[in-house]
## 1
Amino acid sequence: MRPSLFWLLAVLFGVAFVAATRLWIANEYYYFAAYVVLQYIVLSTAWNILGGYTGYTNFGTGAFFAMGAYSSVVLHKLGGVPLPVMMLVGGVVSGIIGLGTGYLTLRLRGVFFAIATLAITIVVQTLIVNWDYVGGSRGIYIIRPANAPLGGGYIQYLYTLMIVLSVIAVGIARTIEHSRLGLGFAAIRDDEQAAEAGGVPTLRLKLIATTLSGALMGMAGAPLPYYVTYMDPTSSFSLSYAVNAVAMPVIGGMTSWIGPVIGSILLGTIQQVATVTISSALNLLIVGLLLIGFVIIAPNGIVGLVRSWRRKRAG
Amino acid sequence: MSDPRVNPLLRVEGLGKRFGGFVALDAIDLVINSGDRLGLIGPNGSGKSTLVNCLCGTLQNEMGTVTFDGRRIDGLIAHQRTRLGLARSFQLPKPFRTLNLIDNLRVPLIYTVNARRGHHLGEAQIVDRCEELLGDVGLADKARRLPGDLTQVEMRKLELARAVATQPRLLFADEAMAGLSPSEVEEILAVLFRLNEQGITIVLIEHIMRAVMSFSTRLVVLVAGHKIADGDPQEAMRNPEVERAYLGE
């Protein structure tokens, strides 16, 4: 499928999805739940641009996500900034952090890179904890605007924005996958020295990946203050964002744009269901068990399972 | 045409490389002329691969200068040197294992050939060129397979094809024949001879002496980071220092 056609279909799908849900679903809870799943589609797709395509495992999702959220807190306190603009700003802030992270850490490979990204989360979190203007360690209450711009409640508005962002993120991921950039990323993932010997400017490409990945994570985090209405460093930098952003592409499949989408919908939904039916503390246990199961049974995720099944059928 | 003696393809002067306190290469001088078939030999650990790594930008030399086609290239990153026309194959094949053979060759075509000024291959031309390159090394029927499906000798051929895809002027073949049977060695040699006839200058780093002696018009011998011989292959092998290095006293 040509990229332009894919974009068109993705946008149509997004519009149809929003229209259908707004028309038929009135219970606000479903919007709260769907928002989380959509947020994970963006986070895991963003993670996969660096982790799946380029092969660098990032455990710092929480940092990029929370920086997007906290830049919204700052803009909220300054006042008068519409949410879509906040999302753009969050994207720019986290994109810059991504670029900086990339520049500082991309000499490291494998597990050392992963550890460095964990450390970045801690550094950024420490900065926020000590920054009184955004609430410091006490946290800060955010009051939602009284009116939602698109009619309906404010949660419907947040949900709609997150659908738009999901379509953009998935569209970007798929476009990259089929472009020369994606080919360069794959070469880096498979062998960096060989990629250089083939003329691939590996450093530049890796910086593009970290920047883009960070920016999308920041954009996903920007509406968070209005979603939770109370922001504190412990929960907004929670490790569960990082773990989920890794687990969802691994379970869905890392080499294709659809993998993170499948993983997020599957894991995200299971977590939402578990939260209301069993207990919210069980979430990460479920993720952990599924992750172990998939690593053992289907190391290439659901996409990998389907592909090998197709190959067998084709003989 | 300029006189090759005045303006060689590659000129290395006083090149040195250390790893901590260990001197891997010490004051290497080397001139490679256009069209040469140069054999580079030496015992294990003598610095052959380090020299190739320094010349291709995988490592950076600390001392000395490297001039390629009249232009200083030491300090340039590997991909910049590749774009200038220096290509290499790796001692241990490093295929892009998640990409099929066509896409393995597509990487250098898109990132090196198309990155050069005045070149732009369209998608159809790229596929044609990939198939042509694979055909040249006898891998045409495996174009859509993954490198994991290849045998050792096929893997080495892919490695060569990927280096050749960059349209190099100078090619370093780093132990392209290690571990291959005599008939497979002949196959690789034939490929290298053909590339040389097409105008690519080739440096062959090899332990298989029969291959080196039949291929090289010139032989360079490295021992413990020093160049101890450089010249006609037969004469170089009779050099007492070379005999000592290979056979002991």
## 2
Amino acid sequence: MKRWKVIGGLTLSAALVAAAPTAAMAQGAPKLVGKTTGVTLNFMIASSGTAETNADRAAAAAWGKQTGNKVNVINSSNLTLQLTEGFAGGSPPDVFYGETPLFESMAKQGQLLDSGNLIATPSSFFPSLVDAYTYNHTFYCVPKDSSTLAIEINTADWKAAGLTNANLPTTWAKLAYDAKVLTKGKTTGLVISDTLDRLGAFFAEAGGSYMNASRTGFTFDSPQNLEALTYLAGLAKAGYLKFPEQVDATWGGEALGDGSAAMTVEGNWIIGAMQSTYPKVSYEVVPMPAGPTGKHGTLVFTNCWGIAASSKYTAADVSFVKYLASPAQQLRFANAFGVMPSRPSVATQWAAEHTTPVASGPTGTPNVSPFVQGDAYAMPQVATIGFPTVQNAFDSAILGLANGSSKPKQMLSELQTNAEALLQP
Amino acid sequence: MATVSHGEEPVTTAGDLEVERLSPSAPRPERPPSPPRRRRSGLHRGENLFGWLFVSPSLTLLLLFLVAPIILALYISFTNWSGLTSPTSSAVKWVGLQNYRTIITQPGLYQTNFGSAIRNNFYFVIFTVPLQTIFALWLAVLVNNRFLRGRQFFRTAYYFPSITSSIAITTIFIFLFQGSGVVNTILGWFGIKGPNWLYDQQGIFWDFFGFFGLTSPPAWANHMVLGISLWDWIAGPSVGMCFIIILAVFTTSGTFMLFFLAALQNISEELDEASEIDGATGWQRFRRVTLPMLRPALVLVLTLGFISTWQIFDQIFLTASNPTVITPAYLSYQVSFTDSAFGVGAAVAFLLFCLIVFLTVLQRGFIKEDLTQ
């Protein structure tokens, strides 16, 4: 019986080996295959909410109708997981959000069609965004949009505390003062998610950075970053800055919406989230403060339209992405859920339409120009393979800043050591 | 009753029955014991084949979904597969024991995470298994009481958590144990300020040491084993892990209660009454009569308990933001899917497998199932 089990197992393994497809390698200018009409494409997204899903569905339906194709929109709950599953199984989605952590792995292993130049010339997009999706001097995928961080302030709490425009948090000192004044009762002045993806904005403001200019080494353990983290630790110890876990929220937007935060630091996505979940809360958006040397800084998050190199309908995929990345469609996306277009021309147009400093809520979206301004000096995320685990280790120590069990210097040096270990082959 | 002499006791086969049918009164000739499998004739022809036929569906499923993936995972643990291609493609390199070295011997984040995971799971096991066994036994003894009214209701009520989805229960527990949630509000009535259950990383043994004045690690405790210091190793379960322990005990006690209940109902009441007549108190009766007879059930519950607690994943997946709650099973998933390092993830999984096998063998050595062994 046991012998049969072993033989049976080996036979099955052999069968699996024989049936395994090989990965398609893209070399040179990619050849596009497949029909351009009458095909069904699989389009995988990772939506931030109903607004984004509906916008994607509408775009897919419109293009499908225009070209006589059909698009299946798959909203994944865990994009990294589902993309990995698709690629490993040999049947990835045709078009998908090519998010930053997976981008380098996908490009390196030839899973991504280098479609950038086929869709549009790189100069029609913000240079920093094109940079984020260029690997080995190849512009792999077209950036779809970008979001930067800014401060959102609950206007009711602001007015109730007697603060005016002169108190707007334009510097670190003013931010600390505002957080102190706005902390009363159940409301904390400032609530920021405990992740490098928010606190890193302060690193940039202090003059620090994640990587050096040539992107060959990490610069986490620098005096400027330490200054930023110490500033935040001070606020946290005093109780003017809290992290969402301390106020029973899952992210800053939720804390702002349910009243446990007067201010928070979040990106463009907060617009759609507040409109759908907390429509009665009115808030305004102001730019991130300037650091001790007067430097402005924030973080930029971006995504791209990825096309699978092994897709059977790459010609149709390219046509679909051309439609999605077109100026008109980018404007539609921006209006639907608040992300900033990746084309500078469209971005300025969108910002111009939304500069009236009207508070949000039932009357409409807030002034979005702080987000657009941020694009000029924003710092991108780290895209090195294996960085999520390193970031996780740093993030889990942030909560300890509130009671002093985590020390900023130690956190940064551990982050530096762990990140450097990734660069060793 | 017919007496049959020892030497003539035959192994009954189809042939024997036929002989008996033909001549029941004739003395049966001496026949050496026949081999167990003989060529069947008549009614039993093809029995073998049908046996295989009936077993083949589940055997195929087992091979396809259990054996083949395990062999493939073992192969992957010796490669650098990133999950974005087929594991058998030419892009995947054989790296031998490198993945194992990364998590055991090479100093770095992976080693620290692995050491942490083993420590977390170890404390989880030594707290959960005794608690859930004792709790399940206590519930079984309560429900087994002849004079208890509404036994059926209580049995169902205690068993209910085991049949409810673990994800649903975990979500409700997370809601109840929030910083300002129900549990902390109730503790507040007694003047106790409850901790932020899910996110607190403070090891409870550290608090215990604090009572004796030991608040910072002594010099010897800074020595690193598997990437974390000895002071961290003796930290005990964190408050976050205590939350998981409470959750696990609540969920699995019902199942084990049923095992104990079945075993308890096999013990005849006369035995209990006899010992009562002999003057044994309730506790003596329980300890000297009931408990030894529950030995097989106890061994089963302990073995199942150890094996399942070392593999815990569902609850950890939903409360993953606390690093003192990460277990090897969850670490394997995390490393594989967020870092695309499936080789390391598979290595973690196989090390966990070896650990469980080793501990189970150890446990069987300590607690023998049959007293006569």
